């Protein structure tokens, strides 16, 4: 059964495009997930973690999920108001494994891509690693982290991206309070990137924050 969308959020029109219904990855997707439910849950997780109200979120008119054969896992394209999430059905086949694990992975990927549909990016100047880190922070907080992620593998820079930056953001959220990452996203709404944003958020410079984070990880083992 399709979920009832939460009235707190303005939902985009959700649709699905499948160029080749005969692909086995398409079959798996449709066996495991109801597309409307899956996309609605991804929108809800994204908006809940990035915004405190729909008034602060960008208005995205439509999101199209394209299930097609392609290299890689997934990506998001489109204009500011009309987005397309392309998900590789070859990847779904390659992934394999128990149904629940595949469903969990697909929901994780969809949620990550949905964040790209709604997040602010300092007018396109936000470091790519932070864009990916925020997407995986939402994935982590939606309980959709893949089994191989670990906060113990610390990279050599804060904007290494994906789960590496996500765990740094998670640490900031724990240390400086719930909503810190939401504020970080909000600060990138209509201005260009400047790492001073971290100072505004926490009172500390980014370099210092990273040093404390790495130090904590080293001593936590
Ligand atoms: Zn991404």
Number of beta strands: 4
Q: How can the largest sheet be summarized? A: 4 strands, mixed
Could you tell me the strand content as a percent range? 5-15%
Structural class category? alpha/beta
Shape: globular
Ions, cofactors, ligands: which are bound? zinc ion
Q: Into how many domains do the coordinates divide?
A: 2
Give me the strand/helix succession. EHHEEEHHHHHHH
Q: What is the straight-line distance between the termini?
A: 44 Å
- Strand numbers in spatial order across the main sheet: 1-2-4-3
Quickly count the helices: 9
CATH architecture of the largest domain: 3-Layer(aba) Sandwich
- Say what the CATH topology of the largest domain is: Collagenase (Catalytic Domain)
Average pLDDT for all residues: 94
Helicity, as a percent range: 40-55%
C-alpha Rg (nearest Å): 18 Å
Top CATH class of the largest domain:
Alpha Beta
List unreliable stretches of 5+ residues: none
């Amino acid at each position: 059964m399709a979920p009832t969308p939460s009235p707190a959020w303005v939902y985009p029109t959700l649709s699905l495009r499948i160029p080749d219904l005969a692909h086995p990855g398409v079959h798996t997707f449709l066996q495991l997930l109801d597309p409307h439910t899956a996309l609605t849950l991804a929108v809800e997780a994204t908006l809940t973690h990035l915004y405190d109200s729909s008034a602060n979120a960008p208005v995205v008119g439509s999101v199209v999920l394209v299930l097609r054969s392609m290299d890689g896992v997934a990506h998001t394209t489109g204009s500011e108001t009309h987005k397309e999430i392309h998900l590789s059905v070859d990847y779904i086949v390659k992934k394999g494994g128990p149904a629940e694990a595949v469903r969990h992975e697909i929901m994780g990927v969809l949620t990550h891509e949905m964040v790209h549909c709604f997040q602010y990016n300092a007018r396109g100047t936000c470091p790519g690693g932070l864009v990916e880190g925020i997407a995986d922070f939402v994935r982590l907080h939606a309980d959709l982290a893949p089994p191989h992620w670990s906060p113990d593998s610390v990279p050599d820079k804060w904007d290494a991206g994906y789960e590496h930056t996500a765990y740094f953001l998670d640490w900031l959220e724990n240390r400086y309070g719930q909503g810190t990452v939401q504020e970080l996203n909000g600060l990138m709404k209509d201005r260009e990137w400047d790492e001073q944003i971290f100072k505004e958020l926490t009172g500390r410079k980014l370099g210092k924050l990273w040093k404390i984070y790495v130090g904590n990880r080293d001593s936590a083992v």
